[in-house]
Design brief:
The chain is an alpha+beta fold. Helices cover 41% and strands 20% of the residues.
Amino acid sequence: MATIHIPEAEAARNFAEIMARAREGVEIIIEDAGSPSLVLKVAEESPVRLLSESLRMAREHGSTVTLDPGFSADLEAVINSHRQPLR
């Protein structure tokens, strides 16, 4: 991955251009007084994991935790409270 270093003032003046470069895969290091203060790069997609997969992984790692009887109701309430996609 290509990396460029730019001063904070330049990043502020050319933010749209900086964003475009980052979307192309360039890592942008924004510096304040010559020291790195921010890194701008494309966010990596987080993998989606089903609850069943998480529970399987927990068992494989020796977890003995069990879900209480109210977990299903709590989870349903969380889902119903935010029906729009999270992205």
